[in-house]
Write a structure and sequence with these properties.
Number of strands: 10
CATH superfamily of the largest domain: ABC transporter type 1, transmembrane domain
Radius of gyration: 34 Å
Number of domains: 2
Bound molecules: adenosine-5'-triphosphate
Structural class: alpha/beta
CATH architecture of the largest domain: Up-down Bundle
Number of helices: 21
Low-confidence stretches: 1-30, 45-52
Helix content: 55-70%
Keywords: ATP-binding, Membrane, Nucleotide-binding, Transmembrane, Transmembrane helix
CATH class of the largest domain: Mainly Alpha
CATH topology of the largest domain: ABC transporter transmembrane region fold
Strand content: 5-15%
GO molecular function: ATP binding
Strand order of the largest sheet: 6-7-8-3-9-10
Membrane topology: Multi-pass membrane protein
Largest sheet: 6 strands, mixed
Mean pLDDT: 83
Pfam family, one: ABC_tran
Subcellular location: Cell membrane
Length: about 650
């Protein structure tokens, strides 16, 4: 099981760590003071191919290089065919350039080795000119391929990133609840980040392969034995590179959960949103300790891998060096035995130098591509997984409903055994304001998600008139919804966009000011430096910040601006002052005739304005009726909760 941190532990240990951090300027985790318990180990177990990785042979792993090259080629082809073709053509021409150059050198050397250098030069100059021309062509092709790669790389990176972000936004909400989702998402993100260098590394690797093939062809034509010896020097270094990459990936694999949770925590520790709470409640000490522990954990695992990494690289390099020595010895032996002329041996030296350089880049970039291949497979697996979980439910276009009906609808979260909402049968009618009431965890938000088609019931049906939401096009359903969720977005956009977000552009600002007026934000927005154009993002230069209640008013304005057929507000006024709250509920009543309005609130006085109150208890409808009826009913849950609210 993936273990999660328990907030209780943090709170309990906060004081000790605070002391440690406050009394010394050195980081808490490195003092001798008693330290709180370390955060639990997190295990990245959401991976499907982890076992496959562990069982993979070196051959399986080496196969990933062509796979990664194939994936890169497909990506490149999909973003810019012209540049992809340019790179391939340049690579081939550069390889041909090398072969021509080596053959020309092979032709020129025996001619140069005559006793009269003038005569030698006179004979060899056409071959030498061909060699120079071939080298220049190869270099020009390399530069052209480089230019094409620079154009391709950012496009590949953006395409990979866009795909990932878009799929997240289109995934069924249940996908987020799947075990290990955020770990897999993080691994895929690393894959997408690697896409920045993909084409460049693939180009260098293929160039190395083409150069090696050219050199090997020339070497074989000189003497077949030379090719065998050359290949022997390739194998150990290649294998060493693959094993070293595997070690690296294992470290990545073992630290991914710690890095993931550390990344999340980093946001919490550095965001201005939580800066007050963190300081005033003296949380810094423990949180510093926690963060330091996670850093140490990641660092420790990376350091553990350093020794085997060094050993394997040293071993492979020594073996490769020995074989290269063997090649020089074979050349010397062939010349001494009279089986090869000194001129041919000289050409072999030039060819082997070219092959050696090509080999180095193959090993270096083969390892890099192998690495990319591992991360890319994380990326592609995640993409496939989320693609199968996007909200593609059906093609029926939902219309603004006169009636929403739940027929035995229930919902069980993927990670839970018991249903958050038990089978419920219920009808909501247009023109009605319905309030959902109940204690924490009673299932109100879960029910709202089903009513609005955000989730499909795990059992039973939700019908908008005669349309079953399970088979309706989700976007067509949401077009008629206006939702103010418990946690709403403080979008780092202009004030105007914070109201119109999700709606098509319209000329003029009248409706925007109208929505602002409904929630009592006109004055506040008019006082902003650029009114509706003011950027609402404190962290950005020139940005402006709103108060908590003002953000909530803006979220209500956003939902009202949509003039939806189904208006749903989950604790819409929890941060508002009495005036704001009064205004919102008055507006809801005024807007009610044209829509189905659902309000969730713990402030029971607000419930009076509803036509019907539905009281939920442990996922079931415990009672429903008007506020006055339910309050008057003996031993009603609403009556009990209301009495508690009054008892101060
Ligand atoms: N994403 C989730 N994964 C698993 N369980 C969840 C998830 N969201 C909610 N639950 C569980 O479902 C139950 C109902 O939660 P829900 O959020 O619907 O309650 P609620 O009535 O809206 O509570 P509150 O008044 O606190 O907002 C709770 O037991 C909660 O722990």
């Amino acid at each position: 099981m993936t273990r999660r941190l328990t907030p209780g532990k943090q709170a309990a240990t906060g004081t000790a760590a605070d002391g440690a951090a406050e009394t010394a300027s050195v980081p808490a985790a490195r003092t001798a003071a008693p330290l709180p318990a370390a955060p639990p180990e997190l295990d990245y177990n959401g991976r499907k191919h982890r076992r496959a990785m562990d069982d993979a042979t070196l051959w399986d792993m080496a196969r990933r290089i062509p796979m990664a090259l194939g994936q890169t080629a497909r990506l490149a082809w999909s973003v810019d065919r012209r540049m992809a073709i340019t790179i391939v053509v340049c690579q081939l021409l550069s390889g041909i350039g090398t072969a021509v150059m080596l053959s020309a050198v092979a032709r020129a050397l025996p001619q140069l080795m005559v006793s009269d250098p003038r005569e030698g030069l006179a004979q060899a100059w056409p071959a030498l000119a061909a060699a120079v021309l071939a080298m220049a062509t190869g270099a020009a092709m390399w530069i052209l391929a480089d230019w094409a790669t620079r154009r391709l790389n950012p496009k590949i990176a953006s395409a990979a990133d866009l795909t990932l972000v878009d799929l997240h936004m289109r995934a069924e909400l249940a996908a987020y609840d799947a075990e290990g989702f955020s770990d897999r998402s993080q691994a895929a993100e690393i894959g997408a980040l690697r896409a920045v260098d993909l084409a460049d590394d693939a180009k260098t690797l293929t160039n190395g392969l083409i150069q090696l093939a050219s050199a090997a062809t020339v070497l074989t034509s000189l003497h077949p034995l030379l090719l065998g010896v050359l290949l022997l020097s390739v194998v150990p270094r290649g294998l060493g590179g693959v094993i070293a990459a595997r070690i690296d990936y294992r470290v990545h694999d073992r630290t991914i959960s710690a890095r993931n949770v550390r990344g999340m925590m980093r946001w919490w520790l550095t965001t201005a949103d939580l800066a007050d709470e963190l300081r005033a409640n003296t949380m810094r000490g423990y949180l510093h300790f926690w963060y330091r522990t996670m850093c140490d954990r990641v660092e420790g695992r990376e350091l553990e891998a350093a020794r085997p990494y060094l050993l394997i690289t040293l071993f492979a390099a020594s073996l490769g060096g020995l074989f290269t020595l063997g090649m020089w010895a074979s050349l010397a032996g062939l010349v001494l035995a009279g089986a090869m002329s000194t001129a041919i041996a000289g050409t072999a030296v030039v060819a082997s130098q070219t092959a050696g350089r090509a080999l180095n880049s193959i090993i270096r970039y083969g390892t890099v591509m192998f690495h990319h291949g591992l991360y890319l497979s994380d990326y592609h697996e995640f993409i496939d997984e989320v693609r199968s979980m996007t909200t593609a439910r059906g093609t029926t276009q939902a219309k603004p409903p006169q009636r929403i009906r739940l027929e035995g609808a229930s919902y069980t979260y993927p990670s839970k055994d018991t249903a958050a909402v038990q089978p419920i049968t219920l009808t909501l009618n247009r023109g009605e304001v319905v309030a959902f009431v109940g204690e924490n965890g009673a299932g109100k938000s879960t029910l709202i998600r089903m009513l609005t088609g955000l989730t499909v019931p795990t059992d039973g049906k939700v019908l908008w008139d005669d349309t079953d939401l399970a088979t309706a096009c989700a976007e067509s359903v949401w077009r008629h919804v206006g939702l103010v969720p418990q946690k709403n977005g403080h979008w780092p956009l202009a004030a105007r966009e914070n109201i119109t977000l999700g709606q098509p552009c319209e000329p003029g600002d009248e409706r925007i000011w109208d929505a602002a007026d409904r929630v009592g934000m006109t004055t506040a927005l008019r006082e902003l430096p650029d009114q509706l154009d003011t950027l609402l993002a404190r962290s950005v230069w020139g940005g402006h910040e709103l108060s908590g209640g003002q953000w909530q008013r803006l979220a209500c304005a956003r939902a009202m601006y949509r003039e939806p057929a189904v208006l749903v507000l989950d604790e819409p006024t929890s941060e508002m002052d009495a005036r704001g709250e009064h205004q919102i509920f008055r507006e809801l009543r005024a807007m009610a005739p044209d829509r189905i309005t659902v309000v969730v609130t713990h402030r029971l006085d607000n419930v009076r304005m509803a036509d019907r109150v539905i009281v939920l208890d442990q996922g079931t409808v415990r009672e429903q009726g008007s506020f006055d009826e339910l309050i008057a009913t003996e031993r009603s849950l609403l009556g009990e909760l209301y009495a508690l609210a009054q008892d101060r």
